[in-house]
Design goal:
The chain is of the alpha/beta class. Helices cover 16% and strands 41% of the residues. It has a single domain, classed as 2,3-Dihydroxybiphenyl 1,2-Dioxygenase, domain 1 (Roll), CATH 3.10.180.10. It has 2 helices and 8 strands.
Amino acid sequence: MDSKGFHHVGLYVADEQRSLAFYRDGLGGKVVHSFSVGADKSNWLIDLGGGAIVELIPFGAGEAKVTIGWAHIAIEVEDTRKAYDAAVAAGATTWIAPTTEIEIGKPVCLAYVYGPDHEIIEFYQDMA
């Protein structure tokens, strides 16, 4: 396989407009593509920076009932506290507030929030 690397993560969402507002307006993502999946529903591909693309897939777009999603999506940021604060201001709820206490073998600052559909979003800042 000649992989060009990771392209995007798909996320099933309960409320398309709420999730679009959160990822685009709240987290500052840029819509890079959208397409209709019928009945007033669209899939949205949003670049959160550096090519980290999340695809929002509304329930009822022809898929089978989905009961599992991703473990979490990690977004590398310049300032974990700033990203965390923006997410919370946009409606996210805290799982783990910004911390440097999580040991991963190098100095990092991490925070975790729950997005609009209770998906876990990690903000990752390399402190090295």
